[in-house]
What does this fold into?
Amino acid sequence: MDRKLTFVSAAAVALILSGWTKAAPDFSYGVEGCREKVTGAPGSTQQIEFFGTLTTANNTSPDGPQGWSVSLSVEGANIVSNLLKGVEVSTIFFDDLDDSTDTTDDIERKDPYIQDLGSADMFTKVIARATLPADPNRKGIISAIVMKSQEKQVLQPNGTSRMFRLVVEATVPAEGCIPVTLKYENGFKSTQSQPTPNVVTFSVDNKPTSFPPNLGTCTVMVCAPPPVQREFQLAAVAAGANPSPGDADNELVKNVPPGENTVDVEVVLTTANLNPGDGPQGWSLSVRNDPCLTVDKPLLKGVEVSTIFYDDLDDSTDTTDDIVKKDPYIQDLGAADMFTKVVAKATGADPSPLPDEAQGVISAVIMKSQEKQVLHANSSDRILRVSYKINVVENETTNCRVFFENGLKSTQSQPTPNVITYSPADVVMSFPPTKQQGLLVKLTGKKEDVSDSFVRGDPNDDGKSDIADAVAIVLNVVPGLRGPNDVEITCKEAGNVNGDGGMNLVDAIYLIDWQFRGSQKPPVAPYPACATVAGVPPSECPPNSFSCQ
It folds into this structure.
């Protein structure tokens, strides 16, 4: 091996001493398989395959290189394998079919001739792991190739050929990226070689001469996947509604009677991209509202969430044998067994950073202290309910907003932030919401159409409620029974005896049960008095009801 490497090194010296000035081809060492990035699970190992390449360009000779030597450093990874076997190059081979003679008659030119660099018929084939003498901690490889000695074999005049195969292995960091760098760098040596240069052997005027190639570098970043942002979303919605997609505020749009109205609002906490299992264990809220809304009742009691509860059946011991996991466990946020349950009207009074006139609600919840209780990860829960009063003017539409803003305080609290408490890897941390959706309240004052006065239970409008009304209901609801002389019930609400929204056979039975069996209560209001009903237009229960004259 020393003799072979000395052959290559001597050729390099010959080049320097010769002062050769003829225009030489361009030689370049590169790396095939170089890429920008490799991604894997944190802590995993990633193997990367490379091939060293030799590129010849601007060569006017009919022959290409006949050998080369390589000195390559590897930083940021461990070498798994370095191989010549299986690495094939396209060559021009002058095969001496009878090497017992000195004549050229028996020489056959083979072009192209595919040569495996690891085959036994190679004159010099060296590849080994190496270190840098000046810094033995630096690792790399060296390689040296001379294809033939007695016969002529060269690479193609121009083009790119592989010189070796290299597999390295790197460990993916917990986060971010680490560089793996391959760099052609003179001077690495194996345990048996001398320091090796990067040179290409090429014949000039039939004399093997060594040329220094342009040296390439390859850096591949070995990266953990980009962190997926944990999502904690707060949304104010009308009671019973769900948050709308996107970032825009939710809306409550409807017609209401002019005057003072009540608007029930709920706060929904939605989590996403959390590790499966445990979700938040607590939160604090600062929910502000426009002056056109007035907080009436902020409530936790009756607000129920689905949790995972590790119930310690015997808290007098420190063992875990008596802990029972209850999943799902429905928790009322206003229950007495809550560790922290705060809800109160709030303002921007000092030391709040908000204006003094700011108004709203603050809330703080921690479900348990000694035992573990958390929401489910990647789910939605309603965590607060607030009733507001709002005055609506006839034929006008309100434009009032409920929204999240840090800093409101009650008479007893400090300024309150909007944060969610969550414990990744059993470390309690507070996270600000990644998205906040307010609620835009758009109520239009509209007077509802109301019926003229009628008495429920007197659909035949004869001034009394009796079995004739039950018969009239049957004749009107069963197709084909009502004759030309039978009463047509024009006010269907009068026949809606049980008040379930429609007149049907159930109402006839209801009347009979009430009148003769005593098994039903009297008809629902309006009974026995005459009255109007909101939402029932005069066209359905017209004026001049006999019962109400």
User: Anything to note?
Assistant: The two ends are 125 Å apart (CA to CA). Residues 2-18 form the longest helix (17 residues).
